[in-house]
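In the previous chapter we treated chains in isolation. Here, by contrast, the input contains two separate entities that must be folded as one system, with a combined length of 228 residues.
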Amino acid sequence: DIQMSQSPSALSASVGDRVIITCRAGHSIGSSLNWYQQKAGKAPKLLIYGASSLQTGVPSRFSGSGSGTDFTLTINSLQPEDFATYYCQQGYNSPYTFGQGTKLEIK
Amino acid sequence: EVQLVESGGRLVQPGGSLRLSCAASGFAYSGYSMHWVRQAPGKGLEWISYISSSSSTIYYADSVKGRFTISRDNAKNSLYLQMNSLRAEDTAVYYCVRDDFWDGYIWFDPWGQGTLVTVSS
């Protein structure tokens, strides 16, 4: 199984800040890396697929990069609605493992 | 509008069984693979099962292998998860998710709203 680890586990930031969340795969997954946003009590929502492709309708302040084993999710100019938990996931092979999540909180 | 609606979650005793359903609409269901993903209270996301569009390929997480069975009915645009020998650690919100793909990459979109399964005596 491919282990996925995210850092940090929690992050405090202010509206307008730029934040970076990292995700590391246990072995190379090429660009098969997805990012999801989950707000409290809601289902996850796809933000980024294929490491860097922005899902339709997702604001351009979200961006993803990386390949192989190291990936990042960057959120520029944080908005109030961005405070949520973010998960990375590998789509390389089964089992399609997720990172443990990064909770983004308001400072 | 693409929509996935889960049902069937409830309180069940340890060792019991439950069948979850997911009704799909707004897209050509028979052409897509599907997944179940769960989330224990206050915890992260755990992928548990995959089924291909024709049901020819099925995968399970080790945590549910031998106890859970995924299936689908393309004529009814429905996905199912038969859950047997339930344990307290199976308590979670269960999400039905569509498998989308392009150029060799796969991702999960959209997600249903989830259905809560509670295993407790």
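Chain A is about 0% helix and 50% strand. The mean pLDDT of chain A is 97. Compare these points with the single-chain example from earlier in the chapter.
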